Amino acid sequence: MKSFLLLLFLVASHVAAETNPEGVEVKKSRLLLLPASTVENSAAQQYGQLMRAAQQKNALNQDPKQLDRLHRIARQLVPHATRFNKQAQKWTWEVNLISSKSVNAFCMPGGKIAFFTGILDSLQLTDDEVATIMGHEIGHALLEHGRARMSEQLLKNIGISAAAIMLNLGQVSAELLAQAANLAVSLPYARRQEADADLVGLELAARAGYDPRAAVVVWQKMSKYAQTAGRGQPPQFLSTHPANETRIKQIEANLPKVMPLYKKTP
Ligand SMILES: [Zn+2]
């Protein structure tokens, strides 16, 4: 019985690629051992802790103008998110701005977005550029890359069998989950996941009325910044997001799929 359930679960978790009549094509086919709700709860806790820590240092949402901008861009991107993940409709989206020189931004599972002032200031990002970065990060959340990685980390590092996780989640302690979530946030994603997040970002930006061509500029700025920032302090975002030719080429190759969407917007 148990092995039957296991098989059923594995089959069910290998869902086919989302079909999209227009726009980009991305795959959602990984071993998602952990339930989405478990991953989202764990992410929400971690996010809450991070924001409280920032607040204690007076580093949370200190720039109302920039924060307004982030909120406005998120409000325009989020309605299109369900194209890539229907569950996103039920997410409690959050956007916060952390005062820090760190060149970084992320969206944790369940729609918990954070931008660091460092990425806005160092790269002098325009609205279009912010939208493609935010779209990319939202893409990771929608395609459940964090969930996939947390599932992998639990299996790999903690050595719990797949069956144990699936059939008796109660045995996975909150501590182990937090550990997996930590690893999931600090490690780079796979190249394929990065590429897919780029595509989702392009489409979300385009549908929201932001010029998706800005994505190319973002990665050019990012790579230039990395060269001038010196070896001592590589920007955090770049350690998980290599700004290379392949990435830029893939983005350029996919622009024709999203430009019509952008042009349709008022
Ligand atoms: Zn990414």
Descriptive notes:
This protein is mainly α. It has 12 helices and 3 strands, in the order αααβββααααααααα. The chain has a 3-stranded mixed β-sheet, with helices on both faces. Helix 5 (127-142) packs across helix 10 (214-228), helix 9 runs parallel beside helix 12 (245-264) and helix 10 (214-228) runs antiparallel to helix 12. The longest helix is centred in the N-terminal third of the chain and has 21 residues, at 36-56. The chain is globular, with a radius of gyration of 18 Å. The protein starts with a helix and ends with a helix. The model is unreliable at 1-19 (pLDDT under 50). The structure holds zinc ion (ZN). Zinc ion (ZN) binds next to helix 5 and helix 9.
